[in-house]
Specification:
alpha+beta, single chain, 5 strands
């Protein structure tokens, strides 16, 4: 069995920086970790590289792992070559995708300046990203009544309004929201509604 690695080990495996986007919906990830060199992020943003970046294109079009040196895509803006001048000489990208109607993708790029990633390191990074992808999956145990109440919270309705519209007591609404908060790991009803919305549940 492969050892589990955490954020500390990621910093050791990617000393030149890393970027992780978890649960990308229509356009934005639910969680984003950007530990790339700030100078590179600034240069990348100003040059509008994302539209041309073969690493990003590969991550969106594939599942699995790929060393940057093996990406089989054109790089007309020389994004990878320019990344090397910022100390990211070697990289590996991992892409994970949920099959199904609401499939969401997570991907991560990990870099170093000294050598190519070993097969074991690539496997460890894939296991790490897959675990983080699964940990951030939406819960499947929310009831229709709980989602209905969360949808009304999202719309800015107060407890009394929700109870009146659903023809239930305020206590019943409180219980639904309490259950939803527990299942979503949220502290407040508003936070639970936001998370449910990010997951595409409401």
């Amino acid at each position: 069995m492969m050892a589990l690695i955490g954020p500390e080990e990621i910093l050791q495996l990617a000393p030149s920086g890393h970027y992780i986007a978890l649960r990308i919906g229509f356009a934005f990830p639910m969680e984003e970790i950007n530990e790339l060199p700030p100078e590179w992020v600034d240069h990348y943003t100003k040059q509008r590289f994302m539209l041309f970046d073969p690493v990003v294109r590969w991550a969106y079009g594939n599942v699995g792992t790929c060393r940057w040196s093996e990406i089989p895509l054109d790089d007309p803006k020389r994004v990878i070559a320019q990344a090397q001048t910022f100390g990211m000489r070697f990289g590996v990208t991992v892409s994970v995708f949920d099959s199904g109607q609401d499939g969401q993708r997570s991907f991560g790029s990990f870099t170093r300046s000294d050598r190519e990633y070993t097969d074991l390191e690539v496997k460890l990074l894939r296991a790490f990203l897959t675990r983080r992808h699964n940990e951030t999956a939406p819960p499947t145990n929310l009831t229709r009544a709980e989602l209905e109440a969360l949808g009304m919270v999202k719309d800015g309705k107060r407890l009394k309004e929700i109870a009146h519209e659903l023809s239930v007591s305020e206590g019943a609404v409180k219980q639904r929201l309490k259950n939803a908060k527990l299942k979503l790991g949220a502290k407040t009803g508003t936070q639970a509604a936001t998370l449910a919305s990010q997951y595409g549940l409401i």
